[in-house]
Amino acid sequence: MSRVYVTDTHPLIWFSTNKHKQISRRVLDLFEACSSGASAIHVPVVVLWETSLLLKKGKIRINMTFDDWRGNLFSLPGFHCLALEDSDVGIAHDLTFTTDPFDAMIVATALRMGSPLITNDGLIHEAVPCELFW
Questions:
Q1: Angle, to 10 degrees, between the axis of helix 101-113 and the axis of helix 45-56?
Q2: H/E element holding 28?
Q3: Alpha carbon distance 131, 32 (integer Å)
Q4: Domain range spanning residue 71?
Q5: What is the pLDDT along the chain (134 residues), one digit of tens a residue?
Q6: What is the CATH number of the domain that holds 76?
Q7: Which residues pair with 4 in a beta bridge?
Q8: How many folded domains does the chain comprise?
Q9: Dihedral (CA of 12, 16, 19, 24) sign
Q10: What is the pLDDT of residues 17-29, one digit of tens each?
């Protein structure tokens, strides 16, 4: 069985909006494998929330409604929504590398799951608070 990953917001947005040049070849291959069900990526619910806020602020654009985007994403066999747990808050509380609540919760979910985090976030790569995949 293949490994399960957790994704940060930006790689998921870049993949789902066809900005594949922003993504490393290995991340693109992984996302494509998940699209066919050959691998699995957990999408923390906080990634959905951050995406929603970025859309509302006009920082990103997608060519469909948010609900359609979300529905399309989770219709793919390898993408699964990952609910937050109270332990994630405790893990995030102990992280010191960032004050960004989204980054802290995303890293916390990766730590809880024991899964590599798909990210190209410089601050996260500098701190290496969990196993990273890029």
A1: 160
A2: helix 25-35
A3: 21
A4: 4-133
A5: 468 999 999 999 999 999 999 999 999 999 999 999 999 999 999 999 999 999 999 999 999 999 999 999 999 999 999 999 999 999 999 999 999 999 999 999 999 999 999 999 999 999 999 999 99
A6: 3.40.50.1010
A7: 40
A8: 1
A9: positive
A10: 999 999 999 999 9
